[in-house]
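Sequence and structure are kept together here, with a separate record for every protein. A complete record is shown below as an example:
=====
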Amino acid sequence: MEAVCSTPCVGQLHFALSRPLTKSPTFGPSVLILRNPCQLAARQQSWGASPKAALSSAHSSFSSPLPVPFQFVAPARKTRSAKLPALPAVRASTEDGQQFDYDLFTIGAGSGGVRASRFASQYGAKVAVCELPFSTKASDDKGGVGGTCVLRGCVPKKLLVYGSHFADYFEDSRGFGWSFPGGEPEVDWSHLIEKKNKELDRLNNAYKTTLKNAKVDLIEGKGTIVDRHTVDVDGKRFKVKNILIATGGRIFVPPIPGAEHVITSDDALDLTSVPSKIAIVGGGYIALEFAGIFNSAGAEVDIFVRGDKLLRGFDDEVREFLAEQLQAQGIRIHFGAKPVEIEKRDEDQLTLKTEQGDTWQGSHVMFATGRRPNIKGLGLEEAGVDVDDKTAIKVDEYSRTSVDNIWAVGDVTDRINLTPVALMEGMAFAKTAFQDEPTKPDHTNVPSAVFTNPPIGTVGLTEAEAVEQYGDVDVFTSTFRPMKSTISGNPVRTFVKILVDAATDKVIGLHMCGEDGPEIMQGFAVAVRMGVTKKQMDSTVGIHPTSAEELVTMRTPTRQIRKEEAQNGKGEKEMAAAAT
């Protein structure tokens, strides 16, 4: 008979008596690792205790009948009369005789910090996380549980993308026979912002509940590192064994004359009306996503970019294609334009001046010129934590900083600044530090998206990266008009691209700019990560009629790049001609 517990303990509820002892990676094969009262009860029963007595003893040994996911190490069984020592309650560790308040103190409750804290607690650590009070706009004294993505980034921005696209849908519907005899559709932008803010408030509270359910202490306030084992939160100090920095990034606005008149992405998310005419400075994904939002909602939009292309770091063909699609929708793009001054003419008129001598006038100027690691006031220098020349915290492959008990994950390390990557890094850290399972976050083949109009989905290498790493690359491309646009008259087209290692037939890059591109690419990202070949993609039956089927029906390469031929002076154009 087994000892069966009705309490929802972490792990298995029925611990088979025949299960062999667990080998501890720390203490070797001569120990037994018990993770919950059920396991302890089963072992006590196997050593002679009655089922009822075993369960009673097991739960009294644990501080609570609720999940207690830590490792208790007891001597391996030698005889049936062997007895287990009493189990201690979960509590913070000691080191060199020093008692800590927490095993882990996390500064920053964004995606990476919350994920790391939750799982560290589940692995048995006593955990606290500090975060600033909630606001939709970040500042030195405002933040909120959930972080940038949830409160003032991906989530609210995507809600505005959805909201603005209804204007495009209404327009497209005319080609399908729809009309609006009662007048043109109108949007109450303030209503959208109100609903958006209610959703953010819900998410903020949901994240707090998640931490509470994981038995993580949430401390509201600004965290500062005093030394490697001390964190100060608004005057209250905590002794901690490990510190995790997960403070994310901050908006960067170039200090030019009149910068106080511009808005940022935080401000843009809270505008209660659509700008009549807006200049957006920057060529990254934030700038382009807001350009699409405001253009669809009816604003006149101009984009000012210092360089000659949009979206640095993306595939060049994708960058050029997106620029063409934005311009086809009436968005004006000014390349090689560096703003040097913003002048306020009256209450609703601003003038933007560029280094080239050009001027622009409109109602709003938005700066989307990037983000910087959020390290201000953290006390990194006092703690001895190294940063790079871009002020990102330096970490090793396990997210450990130059101080061996201080770690960092997410945008503050400036590796790949995406929410799912921060989640992955937080999980890997928790396993490494508290599960005795050293885990490196894998930053290869990370899929990403840009929610422009049309949106971009991508995974793997760009063409330039592919040629640099593999040399010989087959390139497959296709540009087409989506079926919906053939009737609606929408000018936006779709572009897809596959990059293949010619030596192995392995697909090393996939790119799509078109409606539903991010949704489509999420599925293909699994295939790329698993090492899919072009032959395998070719053998896959497509779903018709869809845009996604183009990715499994392209048979002939647009061009074939051969490193040896290129080195011998044969240009890419000649190789492309040979391929066709």
Q: What stands out?
A: The longest strand covers residues 236-245. The chain has four domains: 1-88, 102-251+373-434, 259-367, 448-579.
